[in-house]
Amino acid sequence: MNERTDPGVVFDEASHDWVAYTVAAEDGARRIELAVEGITCAACMTDIERGLKRVPGIVRARVNLTSRRTSVIFRPEQLSPDDVLRRMAAIGYPSHPFDPALARDSRSAAASELLRAMGVAAFGVMNVMLMSIAVWSGNVTDITPETRDFFHWMSALVALPCVAYAGRPFFRSAIGALRRGSVNMDVPISLGILLAMGLSLANTMTHQLEAYFDSALMLLFFLLLGRYLDENMRRRTAVEAETLATLRADSAIRRQPDGSLARVPVSRIAPGDTVLIHPGERVPVDGRVLSGRSELDMSMVTGETLPVSVSEGDRVHAGTLNGGGLLTVQVTAAAEGTLMAEIERLIEEAQSAKAGTLRLADRAARMYAPVVHGSALLTLIGWMLAGAGWHVSLINAIAVLIITCPCALALAVPAVQVVAAGRLFRNGLLINAGDAIERLAAIDTVVFDKTGTLTLPEPVLRNAADIDADLAALAGRLALSSGHPLAEALAIATTARQPIEGASETPGQGVAATLDGRALRLGSLEFCGFAPAAAAAARALHPTASLIAFRADDGRAAVFSFGQRLRGDAVDTVRRLMAAGLKVIILSGDRPAAVAEVAAALGVDDWTGNADPAAKIARLDALKAAGARVLMVGDGINDAPSLAAAHVSLSPVSAAHVSQAASDAVFLGALLRPVVIAYEVSRRAYRLMMENLALAVVYNLIAVPIAVAGYVTPLIAALAMSGSSMLVTANALRLRRVAEPAARAAAVAPLQPSLPNEAMP
Amino acid sequence: MSILLFLVPVALSLGLVGLAAFLWALKSGQFDDLDGAAWRILDDEDIGEPSELPRPRGDERRSA
Asked: Taking a contact as any Cβ pair under 8 Å apart, which residues of chain B between 5 and 44 contact chain A?
């Protein structure tokens, strides 16, 4: 974060309406939740908590090191939320409050329900197992029928409420599936558990030797464990994604009815409101310019990298980046402008087209349920025909259902998913969709967007070598006074530190200042006094670049050319993907000349420029029709429909909101390497899933004949079930050896520009 | 074996105490931050330094 000093330009400091972000805590205190930048270790936690607790008026401050959030409870009469934020910034941890209006943390509720159910199941299985072992050893020695009945009744007393409580997640989902007229994995699970309980209860009442209470509870415990780990992984991902979204601070400066300015969350902006957009800010909403002139970087919306100038009466779109001028905009639509509505319609169409693909686990359940239920029925009929009575036939049929109860099968896919998602998480990839891994494993084509995906979102100075160092240094100092994105890039490129006093900015044109009696100007070519012919010549020299000029009154002048920079490892990533046998395509909304340059640097022959969202989808559909499975990697709003349409999709963390929502996973950091890692981990994970399903089938091939023949005792059931579950889980854990994140260190390492400068004239 | 009539319920109720403790811990947020707790134990802030007085807010800059 570079500190912006605006000595020349004074804007009204818009007050932040943070009070809306607080919620009531006990005794009239207010609580505010903060997303904090830069919590990396335990020392940061101590720093923040100590730093905050010293401030009078703060009741409690607690950092959650797992989710990297801070919860602060303060007395509103002594302290305002702004004081808390200022204090955080003073300690060295800039932070941003969470908007409590956003629905969040539904995952936490689900995870804690599963954890509670797991606790209950664990209590049940431990105690019932203790009594079962007594019965099993008693059955082969000298237990009296009265003692056995007592143990069975006590087991029933523990098991019935435990199953009723801990089984709810499965029963709920099974009933839901049956209502929709379909079958999922929870249907055979629920049926197996209920039958086992029923049979055990009947056996207990009729003083039989055996009951299956422990098997039913153990099954529940293992399944809940799998579900909980799965849910927990997803929750971690969701929490991380939400923190990132909050740190990006989607807010807007609104002119209040009384004429004052306030910074409010975008969710509170309504059509008809007037908002101010400062230089260098992203436009938060669709609207019409009331006053002001500026240039907009539309690359997030169209992929086009050359800025477009706007003035009074022009339409602006959410997601575009404001250049040098202050704009006052009347909001026409907060979320669904014409452009956004069109894009959302395309996303919806694309998603409904994709809904047909069935998850691997559900496919397995669909094949599995009829086979198991059929064999149980055949067992019943077979034993009846063989002349064994009703009771024996029924017990054997139920034994088949219990022994095949899909413990291994139900764990086979989720266990791998959990380990794989954990692997990806540690490599900086946040998975949105649970089945993204199995879809990623099937791809054979990778389509990249150019702007913001293959290249970094920020522009970079390209002709530093052609400009005298002292002139560049002076220009860099002047650039510190401007909020224009190109000026910021210039300031970064020249490592300027000292702003020039008294610089004044002409919105949409440039900055001017006087230093030691010399008049300096930095801005558009015209602003710096270039004659139209000279300006045209400079533009012809740098056809794909954005230009700003600098002139000192002694006649020395320079033209700075800015271009996009490839992500640090783009070349390497593309090469590795190609080496893995994948076809790489670039689809961009930018000018063909700019796309060609990038494609040549990467060695990609198949590229298209000037592609609008519909054209991108058309291309994806053509690929799909040709039988390709496409991974789409993109970031812009214009990519969102194609992200949703592709077989599977990834977007960088800098991507627009709608693109992240439409894609299956988001990757962090400035490198592209996560794309390769995602592919490799998914391939390996898919293989493990198939192995696990094979293991489950083999287990059933062995166990079912034993059950059909009527030899299953509760002891065998217990051993077989826990044995197969552990086998499947242990197999899934083998994935931990893949992609040990060396990439994590590299993801935060500084990058070197790698788009060859010599490609420029 | 009538001692069992007494011992089994005792064992079960001990198990229930454990379960109740777990549910309480879950409800009171003990599982919310599994990483932080390991470090919090090393913090001696709670011992308190007598010389340390609350300072007025906002004027102390400890930029990291």
From this structure: 5, 8-9, 11-12, 15-16, 18-19, 22-23, 26, 31-36, 38-40, 42-43
pLDDT of residue A160: 95
Considering the candidates A99, A230, A435, A449, report the single residue annotated as catalytic: A449
Sign, CA torsion A407/A413/A419/A421:
negative
Three-point CA angle A409, A125, A374, nearest 5°: 35
Q: What angle do CA A322, A327, A329 make, to 5 degrees?
A: 110
Beta strands A274-277 and A327-333 are: antiparallel
pLDDT tens figures, A234-277: 777 777 777 776 666 567 788 877 777 777 767 677 788 888 88
pLDDT of residue A159: 95
| Pairing mode, strands A15-16 and A261-265 | parallel
Residues A193/A170, Cβ–Cβ less than 8 Å: yes
CA distance B15 to A128: 11
The span from the CA of A54 to the CA of A37, in Å, is: 21
Write down the pLDDT at residue A15. Answer: 54
How far is residue A44 from each of residues A674, A675, B52, measured CA to CA in Å? 27, 31, 21
Are the C-beta atoms of A168 and A117 separated by less than 8 Å?
Answer: yes
Adjacent-strand bridge partners of A297: A321
**With contact defined as beta carbons under 8 Å apart, do A549 and A525 qualify?**
yes
Contact of B35 with A66, CB cutoff 8 Å: yes
Tell me how far apart the 2 most distant CA atoms of chain B are, in Å. Answer: 75
Q: CA angle A104-A109-A115, nearest 5°?
A: 145
Residue by residue, what is the 3-state secondary structure of A79-138? Answer: CCHHHHHHHHHHHCCCEEECCCCCCCCHHHHHHHHHHHHHHHHHHHHHHHHHHHHHHHHH
Q: What is the pLDDT of residues A460-509, one digit of tens each?
A: 887 877 788 888 888 888 888 777 778 878 888 888 777 787 777 776 67
Question: Which parts of chain A sit beneath pLDDT 70?
Answer: 1-17, 99-107, 245-250, 265, 267, 300, 303, 333-358, 405-406, 434, 507-508, 657, 739-761
Q: Do B19 and A115 count as a contact with CB atoms less than 8 A apart? A: no
Does A109 lie at the interface with B, CB-CB under 8 angstroms?
no
3-class secondary structure, A280: coil
ipTM of predicted assembly, 2 dp: 0.71
